[in-house]
Structures are given as structure tokens and as C-alpha cells.
Amino acid sequence: MSKDFENFKMTLRRIEKKWQEKWRKQGVFDAKPEPNKRKYFITVPYPYASGPLHIGHGRTYTTGDVIARYKRMKGYNVLFPMAFHITGTPIEGISARIRAGDEESIKRNRYYISLYEDDPETVDRILKSFENPRNVANYFSSVISSDFDALGFSITWKRRFTTGDPEYNAFITWQFKRLYELGHITTGTYPILYCLKEENAVGEDDILGGDEIKPEVMEYVGIKFKLNDNLYLVAATLRPETIFGVTNIWINPEGQYTLARVNGERWIISKDSIIKIERQGYKVEVVEEFSGWKLIGKYTDVPGSDRKVPILPGPFVDTDEATGVVYSVPAHAPYDYAALVDIKRNPGEYGVKKEIVEMLEPIPIIRIEGYDIYPAKDACEKYGVKSQLEKDKLEKATEQVYKDEYYSGVLTVGPFKDWRVSDVKPKVVEWLEGMGRAVKIYEVSALKKPVVCRCGGKVIVAVLENQWF
Ligand SMILES: [Zn+2]
């Protein structure tokens, strides 16, 4: 850079500082009451005080400043206050991660602080103070204020506040009450994404990589298969209409399962699912824990029929997905078909007796154009699936079959014979509920699992009462 330009830059900086100093001393942006002047109030969504400003902030607040200055020139008495957003979980998350020694967070915040502080000891002292979330909010709101001043924004600093101030909270409470009175909002019981470590609701912004993995609440139907009087194995499904084609139940033999008293009944579900259903409003009391092997070879009934089906080992079953119990419909689910073929080929390898599996055959219950009698078998052959371990091929086969069955499948058996698959689901759920055999189970769905909060806590679905929406 040329020396002339350097000098020119220094001169500009000096002029800038001189005028900013004068504005401050004379309080030209203070907006004192002037009854004879027309009033103008402007506010811009306040910055979240969890880090320094970025270029997008520069654009947003410059827009507000331009309008404020224009109105002043037009003779208005302009009030342009500024606040700092300090509520919500992101600031708490920063403190929690620093307290836990999370290297990435420590590195990032050290960098942020060093943008403002030269002395390494000062940087360390401020970083240490970030273990308390209040200090994170105070530090960043203070440096952002200085940055706004350096940009020359015509802010009415006498009216500075934060979203943590009691006056502000009273205002928000008033707003909610007013909207409620007018009937624009309501309260109710609602399933939401929930962090188990912080014990609070979380949104996409609170979840690690949330904008990429798209976490959502998904509703499963839990179907109760009876083992004996008042003892149920609760299998979770997204396709309850396939209940008519169930041939067996899959349990992860190495997984941990729990016998628990749930709302007065006795349920067997995975150990991982206990905390989830507790948070979903079920009254749960754990009686006993055991490995999946204990269930293998036992038989359950099939709701609405007089059939009995065996419980078989399915190493692919994820005990942390819904109830960790899955029912098998090999005629219409490629995973189930591949697993059944494997276990029939070599029952000994899976630790089951030949007699239990040799009689098992897929039960076709849905007819679709362009498929043979067993759509899952067709799809496995089309995608070249050789065993239950070929996950990529099985995913493709599953997607294809589920889509085709949903849009063009028709039930061929049972009380809903001739119903289209796309219409029948609520009817089947109602029918199962009528027999006391269906419950709602919520699970987190995401493009990639596990779903973890920024604080490091596990994210589940909780059902909370008195939620505003
Ligand atoms: Zn959390």
C-alpha cells in the first residue's frame, strides 16, 4: 500500500474518532423528550451475544442506522434503542462445553476474545470466566457495543437492555397473555425435541449439525404383542397396517431389555427406551433387566388373530430406536425377508432351533401392480441382496417397496381387505386401540444419528404439558 494511502486512511480515522467523540459528549442520539417534535421509533432485531459480530450484522444494523439518520434529518425526534439477546440455550451451551473442557469450543472462544485483547493472560482470564454463562453474555454484549460505536451507529444507548432484564421478561409475559386472551395462541400437550442433560426443549439451532441432519419428531405406533396375561412385548412400527403379515418378532440378542410396570401393565422393551417413554408421559417402574437372549424362542400372540409367532434373534435391531422391539413382515419388508432367509439357512449360527424357523414363510397381505406375490423378495432380487448385512442395497430395496406399496398397494386380507394402503393406517390404529393393543411412541428422526445437543446431551422426544403453540 502506498504511503499516501496510509496517510489518507489515518486522517479519515482521526476525523471519524473526533466526530464520534463529539456525538457522545453532546448526547446527540439520546432522544430526549421534545413535545413539539414528531416522534419516530426504530428497532432492529437485537444481536445474540454469543460471539463477535460478523459481516451480516454490519449490513443489518447499517440499514437501521441509515433509516434513523434519514428520519432525524427530516426533523423527527428518533428513538433507536439497542438490546442484546441473551436468553435461550446457545449461551448456556458455550459455558457447559467450556466447563467440560471441549477443545473445539475453547479454541473458538479463545480466538473470539483475542480479536479484542492482546494480552494472553487477559484472554485466559476472560475465557475462564466464560464457565459462567452470564459472563459470556456480558463480554460479547460489551464488545459488540464498542463495535457499533466504531461503526458510528446513531444508537440511543441510554435505552440499552437485554432479554434477561426483569422488565423485558414482564413485557414478554404480558404479550403472551394478551395473545392468549385474543385467542391467537393456545396451550396444550405436545411432543418436542428435548435435551436429557439440560432437561429442556431444543430446536434445530441447539443441536450439533442440526441444519444438516434435520432432526424431527417422528410418531411410531407401539403394538402390544401378548406373551402371557398382562405381559406385553411392545414392538414399534411406522406401518401398522402390516400387522396382518407378521411372522415373528425380532429382538437384538446382545441388547439389554427391561421388564417394567407401565401404566399398570407389564411391558418388555429395550433398556434404552425406558427414559424416553418416561419423558413421554408414561408411568414407568423398572422391575428387571436382562439380555435379549432370554426372550429368544418364546412365543407371542398376534393382536386380532389366534396365531402365535416366535421371538427370533435380529442382530440388526437398534435397541436405541423406539422400543428396540421390531415385528417381522418378510413378504413386504426387505430387511425382514433377508433376515428370515439367513436364519432359515443356518439356524444354529443364530442360536435358534431348526424346528422354530423351518415352518416360517412370508405371509403376503398387500397386492401391487408390477410385483410378484412377495414384493420384498422381488426387491431383494432386483437389488442383488445376498444377506441381511448388505445395508446399502437393503435401504434401496426398502425405499422402493415402501413407496410402491404406499401409493398403489391394496390390502388382500383381514378386516380391512380391499382398502388402499395410503388410506388404511388411521383405521388400523383405531382398530388396535379398540383392543387396547396400540400406543403412541415418539422417536427422533434425522438424516444422521445419534442426535446430540450442543451441550453434549442426548436428544430424545419428550411430551410436555402446557406448551404454547
Ligand atoms: Zn443440551
Describe this structure in words.
It is built from 14 helices and 19 strands. With 469 residues, it is of the alpha+beta class. The protein has 2 domains: 15-180, Rossmann fold, CATH 3.40.50.620; 216-445, Valyl/Leucyl/Isoleucyl-tRNA synthetase, editing domain (Isoleucyl-tRNA Synthetase, domain 2). The strands form 6 sheets. Strands 12-10-11-8-7-18 form a 6-stranded mixed beta sheet. The chain has a 4-stranded mixed beta sheet with strand order 13-14-9-15, with no helix packed on it. A 3-stranded antiparallel beta sheet has the order 6-5-19. The two termini are 57 Å apart. The chain binds zinc ion (ZN). Zinc ion binds at residues 195, 197-198, 453, 455, 457.
Task: Name the features.
469 residues, elongated, 6-stranded mixed β-sheet, alpha+beta, 4-stranded mixed β-sheet, single chain, 2 domains, binds zinc ion, 14 helices
Report the mean per-residue pLDDT as an integer.
94
SS elements, strand count = 19
The number of helical runs is 14
What is the CATH domain class of the largest domain? Alpha Beta
Strand content: 15-25%
Using only C-alpha atoms, the radius of gyration works out to: 31 Å
Question: Distance N terminus to C terminus?
Answer: 57 Å
Structural class: alpha+beta
CATH superfamily of the largest domain: Valyl/Leucyl/Isoleucyl-tRNA synthetase, editing domain
Summarize the amount of helix as a percent range.
Answer: 25-40%
Biggest sheet strand order reads 12-10-11-8-7-18
Q: Extract low-pLDDT stretches.
A: none
Report the CATH topology name of the largest domain: Isoleucyl-tRNA Synthetase, domain 2
Main beta-sheet strand count, sense and barrel state: 6 strands, mixed
Indicate the overall shape.
elongated
Q: Which hetero compounds are present in the coordinates?
A: zinc ion
